[in-house]
Amino acid sequence: MKVTLIRHTSVAVEKGVCYGQTDVPVATTFPEEAERTKTNLNGKVFDKVYSSPLTRARLLAEYCGYTDYTVDDRLLEMNMGDWEMKRYDDIKDDNLQKWYDDYMHVATTNGESYPMVYKRLASFLDELKAKDYKHVAIFAHCGILLCAGIYAGLFPEEGCFEHAVDYGGIEEIEI
Hints:
This protein is α/β, with parallel strands linked by helices.
């Protein structure tokens, strides 16, 4: 099965603010970014379309013409816990340095770690593999796209952030 993963467009959040699962608004550049994504999708037809429940993913799916999508909570971005909507520079938490030192394994305070995100995405993809679809679209987030790339063997966990797609970008995997 071919899976096309699409990252949401830019958000209206100041740079340096940790927003994770917060349902933040899209940036004013949404129409231009979404049009570019729609063009890059080139009218692809999917057997099934899924989306994160967050507005930034759903709006892009709808703009691109995929209004009949299924929302799945396993496609949410990483839960940043106590750090949600705080500037990284303003977070006063001893765990922050531990997370900076090993963000691929340490959980955010009262939030998730990448292995937790990977586990929920792998559960989703394992379930998806059992379905009789040929081509599926998923509108989601950077963390989900990175975990999907690792799951599909596109790149290793180590250094995976070097493979992060831009806002509105597309990643394709086979499962």
